[in-house]
Amino acid sequence: MHKAAKSIVLVHRPTVIQAKLPIRIFLRQKIVVMVLKKTLIFRPKLDEVKYAPGDLFYVEVLGIDIKGEEVPISYEVKLFELNDQPSVWAFEELVEADKANLIPEMLMEAYSEDISRIDFTRLLIHGLMQHTGQTYNELYETVDVLDTEFKDTTDLDVQLAARLGIVNGVGDNRFNPTGGILRQEAATMLYRAGQYLEIEAVQDVQEFSDADKIPDWAKASVDYVTNITDATQGKKVMEGVGNQMFAPDRSYTREQAMITVKRLLNRS
Q: What gap in Å lies between CA 106 and CA 97, rounded to an integer?
């Protein structure tokens, strides 16, 4: 038996009319709603709406149909643990990435957790296939090099990324698939993907106060990703973390990875 659903009424008029899905909306009041692969994520403000993970809510949203007419949409939803939801700052760009089909469904969880090497690789290969319209086999045939084999993974995305020159191992023929990545490593993988796609960066080196901490092997990559601009948001693929710092040795989260891949590939 389910708990009785609490009632919340939301009214919002989307600025963009969505055929069939008039529910890609963002609310800055008591609760925030977003859509990822037809999954609604509700984020109540804890100081205004009291709830426990697992509570059911009955939600009414006023949308606009393809004729421009207002239509009521209602849902009975279950609230998830907060750590399984995207950060508020990431909402808008994650929806953009989702609309472009750049986020593999298997990665749509634990957004604020650190991304693993294998998942970032999968994200990049998925993005390359969407961006180029090519299949795995077609991408495989675009280069003529010997395949790289790793002791600790036979994942096809890793093999393809290695073949395309986007990823390397960590030594001793190992890939370390479950290991995390640092910002300097993410910049390098994004740079190599951009080079494969022949995406050119503006020649305008960014000055970071911690530039001396960026290893020599990552400097060109950092220069590259901080000089390519997302066509929609006008943001650099990777930006500083504040105080003019790049923080090359900080970890990289799943939502950061998704957004930076979207920024790299959003060329129109």
A: 14
Query: DSSP letter at 146?
Result: P
The CA distances from residue 133 to 36, 98, 139, 162, in Å, are: 22, 16, 10, 20
Query: How many residues belong to the chain?
Result: 268
- Dihedral (Cα; 120, 123, 124, 129), 10-degree rounding: 160
Closest by CA to 11, choosing from 84, 78, 63, 79, is 63
Q: Render pLDDT for 213-238 as a digit per residue (tens, 0 to 9).
A: 999 999 999 999 999 999 888 899 99
- Every domain of the chain and the residues it spans: 6-84, 109-265
Over residues 51-80, the pLDDT tens digits come to 565 566 555 656 555 566 666 666 555 554
For 263, other C-beta atoms within 10 Å of its C-beta total 25
CA 8 to CA 165: how far, in whole Å? 51
